[in-house]
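User: My advisor asked me to double-check a structure prediction for NAD(P)-binding protein before group meeting. I don't want to rely on an old file, so could you generate it fresh from this sequence?
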Amino acid sequence: MSESGYEEADVVVIGSGMGGLAAARMPAQFGGKKVLVLEQHYMLGGMTHEFSREERFKFGTGLHYMSGNAGPFLDFMTDGRVQLNPLPDDYDVLHFPDFDFSVRASREKYQARCRSAATGPGIRMGHAHSGPSG
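Assistant: Sure, here is a fresh prediction for NAD(P)-binding protein from the sequence you gave:
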């Protein structure tokens, strides 16, 4: 504690979202530093929580999906207490004025869906290439 009666911190992190909490944990865990996390909201977690309106409508404010490559980061942030569940095949739908597009979970199925959607009337698919045209 300092002479003023306040505890001192070695590191100050502003924001308690996933990035802020990860940034705070590293020097605390691996460097033995005293870390102070500042958050303006009344709830820690940044954009990782949800809010509701009229107790009927729920809105997720941030992270909706994680790729399979997020496993090591997720394990680090949760000490291995959270596991990823695979997404269902059509896990999201994008709504456009003239059509809806279902997003597929696997890269191969997603690419096939994109190719299929891009072959509609008036749509032409091409391949980008570099070098002289010919």
